[in-house]
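pasting for ref
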Amino acid sequence: MTRFDFSPLYRTTVGFDHLSSLLDAVTRNDNAGSGYPPYNIELLDKDSYRITMAVAGFAEDDLDIQVESEELTIRGRKSEENGDRKFLHQGIGARNFERRFRLAEHVKVNNASLENGLLHIDLVREIPEAMKPRSIPIGKGNVIDAKARAKLKQAS
């Protein structure tokens, strides 16, 4: 088990506490994670992602997807089965789970679908117009020489 010490980061930075907390949480969850259910994260396009999770045996009503404070939480709660089923071997995982994903700024959940035992969650990065790079046109203006500038300054 690898353990990282982030205390030098806390001592030498200001305003990056969310980053160090994120690193702590990721390493803590990675070490404690069970790996169930298995999942993929795909890059579909420059700003489009998809999380695909294997949830065989779960119906739509058994799954709950929530986004809060840039964290995506997926929960699977299997309803109690009625009947006296006796398994000789039970290899299909049907236990309850909770899986969390930390989302970057401006990443939004676009939609979710369940097909053939796979839960697909589509995400998209939507950068606000104010934060996108923009080009500033260079116009032709009046060039005022130093003498004219001095006269304007004295006049005002």
